[in-house]
């Protein structure tokens, strides 16, 4: 396998919730509770899970928009989880983000040219003519035209706006792009265009993606490896084909059984999970999935399963495969 | 695909058709502002006031200061359109010259207050935590005083005079602007595009001035306009009380004050300056209302 680009070790993010009038009794929402993974150069790691399972928070921690409560992020071998602000700004050249909502993530008071040029201005990498040229290059790279630079973001459709967001993320030649649900706000027909664009760019520029989504088919389309998150933890992580053909963790199995199949003659066994996703401020003892798991054992109620390699390259956090 | 009509030129260049009528934020604003009839009228009146304040001293038919003891307390006539005061000075000329004073006091005091308040509001909203607490408690203290009382207090310290009126009015404008700007800063800080700017690596200063400040500008402009009216009124009140402009200055409040002894015998001495104050304050308030309707993003598509 290629070189490791980023490695997250046991990341945790607890958000404090103040209780009582004087905020004395503090409790925590465990948004991310011990997540470890690594991304290699030029690879796409997909991260799927229900809403509220901590996948976006994980993306924001990797971007260091949030500081982790615990754990370590190694980027090119260097720990970035405790970097001070000014060094962090340097790091932003290598790490960029594409946001979920293309309507909200572009400043309505700036022209598209200004939006795309902003990373160049902030990092003083290009000035004057050179900057204009780079902006035009970027616009063409994402399939827009150079005359679009003078327009405002509200004059564009959702798909075009997302292209603008991608162009902005590419401006500084980053090595990793964290894409937080980049297509879930778009029409299905536009989704595939944007996904294909992202794949083309990856081939062309050798980018690595951390692709966060709740849409299993989108993740299957774009990822090389896929991690499944549940209640702040990664329960299974494997090569894409491995995971989709042979899911091991009961949660992954249930999740995959929910994906609709185009052929109506195929009858699939639909695993329906009972109950709601537990509150991340008060997760169940032991394996956090055990109250909803069909193959729950006694050990699941007491001991948290660790993420272990149950087959080569296929990691599962489940006592069934301990 | 929005606005994607293009024209292919003979030489093969592709030119967007609507390149000229690009919808800039300003043209958008102007389109909506034009619909507010009353505000447009008020705006024209204010422009007229500004012109008068610039050329006033050159167009007045009589001197605003020189007494004319042959024409004391003359009622409005063709010779003296608004009559004369107790010293025989032409009230119409005095009002015209007073325009400059009132507008100057209104504008500068609000400008100083707006700059100070905006700065404090941005810092307070953006940095939060103890900075926010300190600034907002300071504003609460200022808020605890009724505006005019605070102004009187400040003048009691600084002494009477027009400059001190400006300072006093500016100081009690600061907390109001600080609060308004702080609240829009808080909501803008949470937007995705500010987070996007952070993810790019923009410095806090750049985020504040490039991304947050332009967003607060519309509420600042609206409040600025309305506040000018209030400031003119406050300045006039202070002058009326003898704390601001001193006679024989043709300040409107001071003119009101000098006419109050003759309210029964010569009501025009107080009526015309009062009417000038009334119209000016009303015009600024109407303009402010119109600006708010035109700049409010929630009223985008009516």
Question: How are the elements arranged and paired?
Answer:
The complex is a heterodimer of chains A (322) and B (302).
Chain A: E1 4-19, E2 25-40, E3 44-48, H1 55-62, E4 70-75, E5 78-79, H2 85-91, E6 95-98, H3 112-122, H4 128-141, H5 158-170, E7 176-180, H6 188-205, E8 208-213, H7 216-222, E9 225-230, E10 233-239, H8 240-245, H9 250-257, E11 308-311, E12 314-316
Parallel strand pairs in A: 3-8, 3-9, 6-7, 7-8
Antiparallel strand pairs in A: 1-2, 1-4, 4-5, 9-10, 10-12, 11-12
Helix pairs in contact in A: 3-4, 3-5, 4-5, 5-6
Chain B: E1 6-8, E2 14-16, H1 25-34, H2 37-59, H3 91-127, H4 129-144, H5 147-158, H6 162-189, H7 192-200, H8 204-240, H9 252-259, H10 268-295
Antiparallel strand pairs in B: 1-2
Helix pairs in contact in B: 1-10, 2-3, 2-10, 3-4, 3-6, 3-8, 4-6, 5-6, 6-8, 7-8, 8-9, 8-10, 9-10
Average pLDDT score of chain A = 84
Main β-sheet description of chain A:
8 strands, mixed
Side by side, the strands of the main sheet of chain B go 1-2
Give the number of domains of chain A. Answer: 2
What portion of the residues of chain B fall into strands of 2 or more residues?
Answer: under 5%
* Text of the CATH class of chain B: Mainly Alpha
- Mean of pLDDT of chain B: 84
Largest interface: chains, residues each: A-B, 34 and 27 residues
Number of strand elements of chain A: 12
